[in-house]
Amino acid sequence: MDKYKATCKSPANIAFIKYWGKADPKTRVPQNNSISMCLSDLCSVCTIEFKKEFKKDKIKFLNEKVIKPREIERIIKVLDRVKDLAKTNLRAKIVTKNNFPKATGVASSASGLSAVTLAACQALGLKLTKVELSKLARLASGTASRSIPDGFVEWKKGTNGSNSYAVQIFSPDYWQISDVVAIVTQKMKKIPSTSGHKLADTSPFQKTRIAGIHKKINAIKKTMKKKDFTKFGQILEQEALSMHAICLTSQPSILYWNQTTVKIIKKVKQWRENMELESYFTIDAGPTVHVICQSKDEKKLAGKLKKIKGIERIVINRPSIGARTIDKHLF
Ligand code: PMV
């Protein structure tokens, strides 16, 4: 391995129980625990090299037309945190890429910022545990904390920055379920999730949602333990709608969906009612729909989704391992 240079690959993740609303915006401690699965085919790769000769940090995004200053700032902040831990002032060159469009409801900040976090730690020779890495990634983006462990993951909200992190609840090969992702636009959403989190408390329903979430977490974990796909799917869908109910009733309100999102929701329900195919939808902060099925049905589901007009890309995902180092550098 090169000294001061490392490359990491990290998955996006889909939340079965959502994180929506922060208890502390500064440390990104959430109001509730959340549950997710790391995705095999939606990921980010990041190479970082630190060198004495570099006069300033240089960041390059491959395959991206629009880069917002905020994205650069978030990466620089990760570097600063890791450099503090490693007690160094070296500057870095960073090249990063996603294999999917960012800010459309696929967790690009989760995969991107967990990859940057791990690559920076690795390049500076820091030996951190997964729990430490998850906490560090959380400071960059809440959902990034859930891309560190492998497979099915629970982010324990904790009470403060030092005890809020994600852990594995089941390994990737525990359950053969798939997330067939229907990307319905390449356009970036207008309201970033950071603003959405801030608005959550303006919804009159947020208190009710939070009051019931502990029970919901226990219930969904029970269905996962039993591999009871039907009950699991019912909770999953109801939870997605609950998060979007908060968005819709925030002040100002947020509607992340478009026409194709609604079309897919209706089709998924119809396929179940007609006993054609059992699958359940969930949606993060964007119009993209994640349709969850048993892996034996993933191809059939993808085939059915392909017939819906307005879907730009379909990506089949299995549960995957979390952030890891790889040998192939981007530069
Ligand atoms: O992008 P973040 O880390 O600020 O949070 C987005 C949260 C959702 O994706 C909408 C839900 C979740 O738990 O992943």
Order of SSEs, N→C?
Answer: EEEEEHEHHEEEHHHHEEHEE
Uncertain segments are none
What gross morphology would you assign? globular
Calculate the terminal CA-CA distance, rounded to whole Å.
Answer: 14 Å
* Main sheet attributes: strand count, strand direction, barrel closure: 7 strands, mixed
Strand content: 25-35%
Average predicted local confidence, pLDDT: 95
Name the features:
alpha+beta, 8 helices, 331 residues, single chain, binds (3R)-3-hydroxy-3-methyl-5-(phosphonooxy)pentanoic acid, 36% helix
What are the SSEs and their pairings?
Blueprint: E1 5-17, E2 22-24, E3 29-30, E4 34-51, E5 58-61, H1 69-86, E6 91-98, H2 108-123, H3 130-140, E7 152-156, E8 165-170, E9 177-183, H4 193-199, H5 206-226, H6 229-249, H7 259-273, E10 279-282, E11 289-294, H8 298-306, E12 313-317, E13 324-326
Parallel strand pairs: 5-6
Antiparallel strand pairs: 1-4, 1-13, 2-3, 4-6, 4-7, 7-8, 9-11, 9-12, 10-11
The chain binds (3R)-3-hydroxy-3-methyl-5-(phosphonooxy)pentanoic acid (PMV).
Structure description:
The chain has 331 residues and is α+β, with helices and mostly antiparallel strands. It has eight helices and 13 strands. It has helices at residues 69-86, 108-123, 130-140, 193-199, 206-226, 229-249, 259-273, 298-306, and strands at 5-17, 22-24, 29-30, 34-51, 58-61, 91-98, 152-156, 165-170, 177-183, 279-282, 289-294, 313-317, 324-326. The strands form three sheets. Strands 1, 4, 5, 6, 7, 8 and 13 form a seven-stranded mixed beta sheet that branches. β5 (58-61), α1 and β6 form a beta-alpha-beta unit. α1 (69-86) packs parallel to α2 (108-123) and α5 packs antiparallel against α6 (229-249). The chain starts with a strand and ends in a 5-residue tail after the last strand. The site of (3R)-3-hydroxy-3-methyl-5-(phosphonooxy)pentanoic acid has 15 residues, from α4.
